[in-house]
Design a protein that fits this description.
Distance between the termini: 35 Å
Number of strands: 7
CATH topology of the largest domain: Rossmann fold
Radius of gyration: 18 Å
Order of helices and strands: EHEHEEEHEHEHHHHH
Largest sheet: 5 strands, parallel
Mean pLDDT: 89
Helix content: 40-55%
Length: 239
């Protein structure tokens, strides 16, 4: 629960059907699409959720509230989420559960090296898997008593959130992007594309990332991505 929340004593205990009841989860995530997935997973599990879209916003939030769980994306617009995990790991009192998240296969080792208790690989859509990762790192007195209902439900974020992400990157690419911006674009779009199962966009993001890693010009790859983003922004969404 929020240790600094004046209403914490009235928060209900976890149940078999809502095993995260009573918890407040701070999700530090710049992708609207990924955050919408976390929101649905948290609410279906009984938890309350707060969101910060960058390190600065997260630190501002933590000056006022101390959530039960922090889930920090490693690739953020103003830095690495591992830095926030490292800060919170040595803070006193410590947040109950620190989790890293990333679509990068190497993200888990970086998160754990910073002090994370666990790691959530992107994309995550399984309600049961999400609950297990959080609960496995909770103290025994914060877990539901008796048998727990293991859900195999899959959640599906609203595609409007996906278009919000496309609009965000379109703004980043409006001005001639610097090297940091291109690295951010490649990382951000790679994660969003995997979560949305957009293979074409993921392939283009990986091509940009490879060019950047080799130190070669990425003008062509950036132009291709910009065109793909504009195409996705013009798609009509059935409401």
């Amino acid at each position: 629960m929020d240790d600094l929340d004046p209403f914490a004593s009235t928060i209900p205990a976890p149940t078999a059907a809502r095993p995260l009841m009573g918890l407040t989860i701070l999700v530090v995530e710049d992708s609207r699409f990924a955050c919408e997935a976390m929101r649905l997973l948290s609410l279906r599990s009984g938890a309350r959720i707060r969101r910060a879209d960058c390190l600065r916003s997260a630190r501002r939030h933590l000056q006022v509230y101390r959530p039960s769980v922090v889930i920090a994306d490693l690739g953020l617009p103003d830095g690495n989420g591992a830095d926030l995990i490292a800060e919170l790991n040595v803070a006193s009192p410590r947040v109950g559960v620190l989790l890293g998240t990333s679509g990068d296969p190497g993200g888990e080792s970086a998160a754990r090296a910073a002090g994370a208790d666990g790691f959530i690989p992107k994309p995550i859509t399984s309600l049961g898997a999400f609950q297990q990762i959080v609960l496995s790192n909770m103290p025994a007195d914060r877990q539901p008593c008796g048998l727990r209902l293991v859900e195999d439900e899959e959640i599906h974020p609203d595609l409007i959130a996906f278009q919000d992400d496309m609009a965000h990157i379109a703004e980043v690419l409006e001005d001639p992007p610097n090297e940091h911006a291109l690295d951010y674009v490649a990382q951000f779009l790679g994660g969003v594309a995997r979560s949305a199962k957009d293979q074409g966009l993921e392939t283009a993001a990986l091509a940009l990332a490879r060019q950047r890693a080799c130190g070669r010009s990425a003008r062509s790859e950036t132009a291709i991505l910009a065109g793909m983003i504009q195409e996705r922004l013009t798609r009509k969404i059935a409401i």
